[in-house]
Design a protein that fits this description.
Blueprint: H1 2-7, H2 11-25, E1 30-36, H3 42-55, E2 59-64, H4 75-80, H5 86-93, H6 104-123, E3 126-131, H7 138-149, E4 156-163, H8 169-175, E5 180-184, H9 190-197, H10 201-208, H11 212-225, H12 231-243, H13 248-258, H14 264-271, H15 275-284, E6 288-289, E7 292-293, H16 298-305, H17 308-324, H18 329-339, H19 347-360, H20 364-375, H21 381-396, H22 400-403, H23 407-415, H24 421-433, H25 437-450, H26 455-464, H27 485-497, H28 503-514, H29 524-534, H30 538-552, H31 558-574, H32 578-591, H33 594-597, H34 602-614, H35 618-626, H36 637-652, H37 656-673, H38 683-693, H39 697-710, H40 715-725, H41 730-747, H42 750-766, H43 770-787, H44 790-796, H45 813-823, H46 828-835, H47 839-853, H48 865-868
Length: about 850
C-alpha cells in the first residue's frame, strides 16, 4: 500500500531519475537533489528507484541521516563505505570535527574518500543514496560535495534527499555543477488522492493536505476503526514534526497551545523560531491550512505528546505573554488552568476577572475553578482572603453546605483583620444561615467595633435574626430612598413586618422585581417577594415569583431556585392551593439538602407540613414534624413559620395544649422582635382557635378582637372575623361571617374562604334559612375540594366523595356552565351577570338541567358540578 501511495503522482520524478541513471551508466556521473516537504515520499522514492536500479545491475549504497548523529564526524560516510580510508580513520581518531580546505592532509583525506567511491564504481555502476540530508554532519557534507565535483566520468548516480529548507552554501556549490539536477516532490492533488482512496478522497485530501504519508496513515486508521483518526495518524504526524526542519516541532507545540486565533507575532515570542518560514513549510507539507492544523485532532495529539512539565511551561509562558499584551482575562486564565502549577501573584486578578466573566455566562463551575486557583497564587494574605470570600459566595449559589468549608480560613482572616467590610458581612450571613450564632456574633461585634457596619445590615438582622439586632436598630425609621436593591428590598420587608405596610413598600418591592437579574446570587428578590406576600398581594407575588423561577432555571443557581420555590410554596399555601404548595415545598427541599438549608429549613418545611396537615395527609405531616431542625432556627423568621405550621398540625391531631403553646411562643417572639404584623403569621387567631377547642370562648374573643384592631383589611382580618363569629350568638355571627367571606374572597385565600363559608352555612341553618344554608354549604365543599382540603370536605358534607365523577354527558355546554354556577350557590341574577345572558335564559337552562339529571332543584345538584363543566 505504501508503495502505491508513493507511486501515485510520482511518474515524472521516477522518469527523471531513470534518465539520470542511464547517463551515469554510460560514464557520465550524475547528482540528483530530491527535495520537498516532510512526509511527501522522498525516502520511499529512493527505495523504489533503488529496486529499479538493482534490476539493472546497479549497486546501491544507502545512508540515513538523523539529528542525533549530526555531531558525529563522518557518520554519513561511515554508513556508505564498507571500510573507511585509513587517513579518514586517523583524522577521526584525532578528534577532527571540521574540515579545513587549507590543511593539505584534510584535502588529501577528501580525495581518499572520493577515490573510495570511484573505485567501487569501477567494479560496477553505483547508486549512492543519502536520505534526510538536512541532518548530515558537516565533514560528510564536505565529502559528498567533493565527490559531486569529481563524479563526471564515474558510473555513479548520487541521490541526495532533503526536506525543503533555506538555500545554504552547500546548495550553491552543489547546484553549480552541470551534472546536478533538482528533483521536486510536492503534495498530491485532490484527483490523485481520489485515485488512492475512492469515495474517501475529498475527506482524505482535506485532512491530509495531499501529504502521502498522512494520507496513508488515515487510510490505515480507517481500515482499522472506520474513522479518519487513530494511532497511525498520531504516529505519522509526530514523526513528520520530528523529521522536519529544526523548530517545526516547537512551532507546532506553540500553535497547539495558543490555539487557532493566535497571531504569528505572539507565536514567535512564545517559541523563538522563524514563524513565517516554518508556517509556509508546514502548509506546503499539508499539515496546516490558513495557519491552523488541517486535522481537528492534530492539536490534541501534539499537546498529549509533550511532557507534562514542558506543556505546563508553554501554557504559563503563553499566559504571561497574553497578559502583557492586554488579552481578555478568560484567554489568559485558560492557559493558567492548563499550566497546572503554582502561579505568581500577577495571576490572581486575572483569575478573579475570568471568574466574574464565567458567572455572567452562567458557568458557576468554571468560576469556582478560577477562584480556587486564585486562592493558591502567590498573592498576599489580604488578597487571598478576599478571593476565598468571593469563592465562598460563588459556591453558595449551588450549595451552601459546600461553601461552609471555607469558614475556618475566613474566620481566621476576619480575626486577623484581613477581610473588608462586605466580606465580613458575607461571612456573617453565611454563619447565621448555618446557625453558627456564637461565631456570627463574634464577627458581628468585630465589624461593629470598627464602625463600618452598614445600616442595611442592621436592618436585615432585625428582620431575619432579630436577637442579634442592635438595640435601637433602624426599624423605627425605614426608608426605601437608596439605589442598593438589597437595602431597598430589606427596608420594604421591614415596613411590612412592622405593620407599617404603606403603599410605598409594595411599589418598592415591585420596582425591585422589575429590575432583578436572573443569574445573581443575592436574595434581595426573595425579600421583595416576601414583602408582597406579607402585604397580601398574593397574585402579584405569584406572577413575579413564577417569572423569576423561569429566568433562573438552568443557570446553576440551586440556592436561589430553592428560595424561590419555597417562597412560591408559601404563596400557594396562602392562596389555599394545598396541592401546589406541597409540590413547591418538595421541590425546594429537594434542591438543597436539609443541612444545606441551615436555619432557613423552617421556611419550606413549614409549607410542606401545613399543606400535608390541611390536606389530611397526617402520616406525612407526622414524619415532617419528626425531622430534626437546627435549634438556632427558632430565633429566626423561618422558625416562626415552622412553629405556626407545627401548631396547626397539633390542632389537627387534637393536641390543643401543644398547639396553644406554639402559637403563644410565636407571640412572645414577634412582639419582642417588634415584627408583630398580623399578615406575617396570624398567631393570635391560631391561639384563639386553640382556646375555642378548649372551650374558652372569652379568651378566643379577646385575641380575635385584638387581631381585628391591628388588621384593617386582608387575609388575617378574614380569619379573625371567622374566629370572632364563633364566639358570638347566631344573629351577630351571620354578619361577621358574611364580612369574613367577602374579605377572604377578595384576598384570594380559598382554604380560609371554604372554612368561612362552612361557618356561614351553619349560621344560616341556625337561623332557619335552610335553602341558602345548603347552597352555601355546597359552595364551601366545592371550594374546599379545589384546595385539596379533604378533611374540610368531610367535615362539611360527610356523605360526599370529593373525587367521585359527575355524569353530565347529557348536558350541553351552556347548561353545564349555568349548572356549575348554580351548584356553587350563585343566584340566577348573579349567573346571568357572569355569563352575559338574561335571568329568564338562566331559568330555562336550569329547568332542562333538573330534568336531565333527575333532581328537584339547585340544592340537589352534584357538588362537583363545577369541575365537570
Amino acid at each position: 500500500m505504501r508503495n502505491c501511495v508513493t507511486l501515485i503522482g510520482r511518474a515524472d520524478q521516477l522518469a527523471q531519475l531513470d534518465r539520470m541513471l542511464a547517463d551515469s551508466l554510460s560514464g557520465n556521473g550524475r547528482v540528483a537533489l530530491v527535495s520537498g516537504p516532510v512526509g511527501c515520499g522522498k525516502t520511499e522514492l529512493i527505495h523504489i528507484f533503488a529496486e529499479i536500479a538493482s534490476k539493472a545491475g546497479v549497486r546501491f549504497l544507502k545512508a540515513t541521516c538523523a539529528p542525533a548523529e549530526r555531531l558525529l564526524p563522518f557518520g554519513v560516510i561511515g554508513q556508505l563505505l564498507p571500510s573507511a580510508p585509513g587517513r579518514m580513520a586517523r583524522l577521526v581518531a584525532s578528534g577532527l570535527s571540521v574540515i579545513d580546505p587549507r590543511v593539505p592532509e584534510h584535502v588529501m583525506m577528501l580525495n581518499d574518500v572520493c577515490h573510495a567511491f570511484t573505485d567501487l564504481a569501477a567494479e560496477g555502476p553505483l547508486l549512492v543514496g543519502v536520505d534526510d540530508l538536512q541532518h548530515a554532519d558537516a565533514p560528510s557534507l564536505d565529502c559528498l560535495l567533493f565527490l559531486a565535483r569529481r563524479i563526471g566520468t564515474a558510473r555513479i548516480l548520487l541521490v541526495l534527499s532533503e526536506n525543503d529548507r533555506p538555500r545554504s552554501p552547500f546548495h550553491g556549490e552543489l547546484l553549480r555543477e552541470r551534472h546536478c539536477r533538482r528533483v521536486r516532490l510536492g503534495t498530491l492533488t485532490r484527483r490523485e488522492i481520489g485515485v488512492l482512496s475512492g469515495a474517501l478522497g475529498e475527506d482524505l485530501h482535506r485532512l491530509s493536505g495531499g501529504n502521502p504519508l498522512l494520507a496513508h496513515a488515515l487510510l490505515e486508521d480507517h481500515a482499522a476503526t472506520g474513522g479518519l483518526t487513530g494511532p497511525a495518524f498520531r504516529e505519522v504526524l509526530l514523526a513528520c514534526l520530528q523529521r522536519a526542519d529544526p523548530g517545526v516541532a516547537a512551532l507546532a507545540a506553540g500553535l497547539a497551545v495558543l490555539g487557532e486565533d493566535t497571531s504569528p507575532a505572539l507565536l514567535g515570542r512564545l517559541t523563538g523560531v522563524d514563524v513565517p518560514y516554518l508556517l509556509r513549510g508546514m502548509e506546503n507539507a499539508g499539515l496546516l491550512c490558513d495557519g491552523w492544523f488541517r486535522h481537528p485532532a492534530a492539536a490534541s495529539v501534539i499537546r498529549d505528546d509533550l511532557p507534562q512539565r514542558d506543556l505546563g511551561e508553554l501554557h504559563l509562558r503563553a499566559a504571561r505573554l497574553l497578559h502583557d499584551q492586554g488579552a481578555p482575562a478568560v484567554d489568559v486564565a485558560r492557559h493558567l488552568a492548563a499550566a497546572d502549577r503554582p502561579l505568581a501573584a500577577w495571576a490572581a486578578p486575572v483569575l478573579h476577572d475570568a471568574a466574574e466573566h464565567a458567572l455572567r455566562e452562567g458557568d458557576v463551575d468554571e468560576a469556582v475553578r478560577h477562584l480556587e486557583r486564585a486562592v493558591r497564587t502567590g498573592a498576599d494574605d489580604r488578597r487571598r482572603a478576599a478571593t476565598r470570600s468571593r469563592l465562598a459566595r460563588v459556591e453558595w449559589r449551588t450549595s451552601p453546605a459546600t461553601a461552609a468549608r471555607h469558614f475556618p480560613a475566613l474566620l481566621t482572616a476576619s480575626r486577623e483583620g484581613l477581610l473588608g467590610c462586605w466580606d465580613n458581612v458575607s461571612l456573617l450571613r453565611q454563619l447565621l444561615w448555618h446557625g453558627r450564632l456564637d461565631e456570627a456574633e463574634e464577627a458581628l461585634e468585630r465589624v461593629r467595633a470598627s464602625g463600618s457596619l452598614p445600616r442595611t445590615v442592621e436592618l436585615w438582622l432585625a428582620t431575619c435574626y432579630p436577637r442579634l439586632a442592635e438595640d435601637g436598630c433602624p426599624l423605627d425609621t425605614p426608608s426605601t430612598l437608596t439605589a442598593d436593591p438589597w437595602a431597598r428590598a430589606t427596608t420594604a420587608l421591614a415596613q411590612v413586618l412592622t405593620g407599617r405596610c404603606s403603599g410605598e413598600a409594595v411599589v418598592t418591592a415591585e420596582q425591585i422585581l422589575q429590575g432583578a437579574r436572573a443569574n445573581g446570587v443575592s436574595d434581595y428578590r426573595v425579600a421583595a417577594l416576601l414583602a408582597l406576600v406579607y402585604a397580601d398581594h398574593l397574585d402579584t407575588a405569584a406572577t413575579w415569583c413564577d417569572r423569576l423561577l423561569a429566568a433562573a432555571s438552568g443557570r446553576r443557581a440551586e440556592t436561589l431556585l430553592a428560595l424561590l420555590a419555597g417562597t412560591r410554596a408559601e404563596i400557594s399555601l396562602r392562596q389555599g392551593d394545598l396541592r401546589d404548595a406541597a409540590q413547591r415545598a418538595d421541590t425546594a427541599l429537594g434542591l438543597l439538602a436539609h443541612q444545606g438549608w441551615g436555619t432557613n429549613l423552617g421556611f419550606p418545611l413549614s409549607c410542606a407540613l401545613q399543606a400535608a396537615t390541611l390536606s389530611g395527609r397526617l402520616d406525612d405531616a407526622a414524619r415532617l414534624v419528626e425531622l430534626p431542625v437546627p435549634e438556632a432556627m427558632f430565633e429566626t423568621r423561618a422558625g416562626v413559620h415552622y412553629l405556626y405550621a407545627r401548631g396547626q398540625h397539633h390542632l389537627a391531631t387534637g393536641r390543643h395544649h401543644a398547639a396553644l403553646a406554639d402559637f403563644l411562643v410565636i407571640g412572645e417572639l414577634v412582639t419582642s422582635w417588634r415584627l408583630d404584623a398580623p399578615a406575617f403569621v396570624p398567631w393570635r387567631t391560631g391561639a384563639a382557635e386553640a382556646w375555642l377547642r378548649q372551650c374558652s370562648p372569652e379568651r378566643a374573643r379577646f385575641l380575635a378582637e385584638e387581631q381585628l384592631s391591628l388588621t384593617p383589611d386582608g387575609r388575617a382580618r378574614g380569619i379573625a372575623l371567622r374566629i370572632l363569629a364563633a364566639c358570638e350568638e347566631p344573629p351577630r355571627r351571620l354578619a361577621l361571617l358574611a364580612e369574613a367571606t367577602e374579605v377572604l374572597e377578595r384576598c384570594g385565600d380559598r382554604y380560609e374562604l371554604a372554612k368561612a363559608l362552612g361557618e356561614l352555612s351553619r349560621a344560616q341553618h341556625a337561623l332557619g334559612d335552610q335553602r341558602r344554608a345548603r347552597m352555601v354549604l355546597r359552595r364551601a365543599w366545592h371550594v374546599a375540594r379545589e384546595c385539596d382540603a379533604l378533611p374540610l370536605c368531610r367535615e362539611l358534607l360527610p356523605d360526599e366523595h370529593p373525587h367521585s365523577p359527575c355524569h353530565t354527558d347529557a348536558l350541553s355546554g351552556a347548561e353545564r356552565r349555568v349548572a356549575a354556577l348554580a351548584a356553587t350557590g350563585h343566584t340566577n341574577r348573579e349567573i346571568a351577570d357572569k355569563l352575559f345572558i338574561t335571568p329568564s335564559t338562566v331559568e330555562q337552562h336550569l329547568t332542562r338541567v333538573y330534568r336531565k339529571l333527575n333532581v328537584k332543584d339547585r340544592t340537589d345538584l352534584p357538588t362537583d358540578m363545577a369541575s365537570s363543566a
